[in-house]
Queue: 3 jobs
Job 1
Amino acid sequence: MTAIHVTGLTKRYGDLVAVDDVSLDVAEGEFVGVLGPNGAGKTTLLEMVEGLRRPDAGGIEVLGEAVWPRNTRLQPRIGVQLQASSFFERLTAREQIRTFASLYGVGQATADAWLERVGLTDKAETRVEDLSGGQAQRLSIACALVHDPELVFLDEPTAALDPQARRNLWDLLSSINDSGRTVVLTTHYMDEAEVLCDRVAVMDHGRILQYDSPAALVRGLDAPARITVAPGVLDTETAATIDGVLETDEGVDGVVLVTREPTAVLGTLAASDRLDGVRVQTGTLEDVFLALTGREYRA
């Protein structure tokens, strides 16, 4: 079954085309990431699919239901964590999530359990305006998940989180997806998309440029491997004579050999007893992202 079916979706703001004729399918139970630089149209796309923003053209079906005209039957079946968290003022974290839970007929015990799952039990009596940015982000995610939705939308869910909190949240999101829930998220973290997502849509200037699994996108890039040899083990002159080496560079980490034949080059290094401390880096999702969207600064 298809959880999300989008065809020809378009949204304009004056002369700006924020989303430009986008078509996209997400399968039930799939974990999909939407990547793109600032202003690519990611948030606008998600807001239309969530039913928060009306498209100018195109069709949207979510869980077999039309999203527009606004479909209230979908609201209990989806969970949404927005880029900017908005809470009821002067409520504690516990009061906040219990209020969200009550809107869906969910009991207080379940709400309190979600506080524990996102690591906020010790902040249960803290007012939401006194939470740190990362704590508020985790509370926002718990509120989006408290009613156990079939489909979850997360807009940059790990922004403002420290590395440990990010990893813990990855485990939580993976467990939600493993239980059969469909998850769609936007993120600027390439490692996050590689670890979590079954498929990734790379978006820029309102269009989807590529949509496939992270591994398939990296394979399609056909990027050369970079083999770093520890300092003092190999000089650049000798490295340049090795068959299969396209170019060399020297830095603080040692000599870097760029090649499209890493197996052969590693064999040569092994034959001359130069493998100690060798590090091999192949293409990454970040390489794909930069190749598709460019390297210029986006405000």
Job 2
Amino acid sequence: MPITAVNKDLDALTLQVVADFTAPVRRLWDAYLDPSQIERFWGPPTYPATFTRHDGSPGGLSNYVMNGDDGGVSRGYWKWVAVEEGRSFEVRDGFSNDDGSPNTDMPDMRMVFDFQETALGSRLVTTTYFNSLEELEQLVEMGMEEGMRDAMGQIDTVLEDLAAFAAGNGTELQLIGDTQARASRVIRGSVDQVWRAHHDPELLRRWQLGPDGWSMPICEVSPDVGGLNRFGWQNESGDEQFGFVGETLESEAPVRSVTTERMWTPEDPEAANSPSTINEMTLTPVEGGTLLVLVITYPDAETREMILATGMVDGMEASYARLESEVLAA
């Protein structure tokens, strides 16, 4: 059990949890910043969490849902207030409605996560600041302390699984709910480099080449909200073409972008008959490079299965490997 102390201060309206680990600080930090890792311990074993968004930067937002073994559902969010890379972060933690909006009928809290190096590894001090004594007592009554103990008791297993989180693992895919998929990969390069590689047409043409033997003659990308994006590939003879068109919905350089995407062909150049997806890309600095997380929302489950069956993940991995070897290593 990693928790070594729990301190309640009714005068300061705080609940402080101290936990010690044999893993290095960097490993512990990365576990909290990677959605595929934090959801393995953010929530008790009987109420595991799924993160549909996790932006580890000031002004960012995290959304998660915990589905209980008893059929119960609990939704929550973090609003990221401050981040000191590798040392601490502060969030506003609260409950969410079914649509992801804050549930104002329930308390929200300020939480500070402080990561410290120790002789044996690392220490995490989590301090929760409540708005009133009534809110503190309400959440303690709801089992907050016991929930944190159960949740943090799972972290050691995650930290020991070093092979599950490392540069060179390749692109990994996880299905979320009925209509989403999350692809993630650690890319050997800085956040700024990976962002630029996704938004500079000259660089994009060097690594997003499509199938073997194809080129990318059309590459129009806009980082501005409302801007249009158009990409097109063709084979060597030029008698086969396809591409994607979409719009930039959100852009927070160099950490997050949200775009739409529809596939076009010469027979349907405006992609009027193609289903549209929403692609949310988040870039987070981690040990070994940048964690790229792409959450794709499809119009329905059938469309998701159809697109994934085309070998999309293999194509993404080939492109990311090319990005590392031909762009970032240059």
Job 3
Amino acid sequence: MKRYAKDSGYKLLASGDGYFFFNDNYNMYVEVLSFDKILNDSKERNRVLFEKLNLL
């Protein structure tokens, strides 16, 4: 996937753990992320809520 993303003009995210691309023809933004990145971001974003609900 990394090779495909680089060869297709995708740029590395600032965090270094994914790629992004903006397609002007379709006015579309695309990100390529690993499942682990999505899961970790979700946990961090919702951490305070889970703590308030005593789920952590």
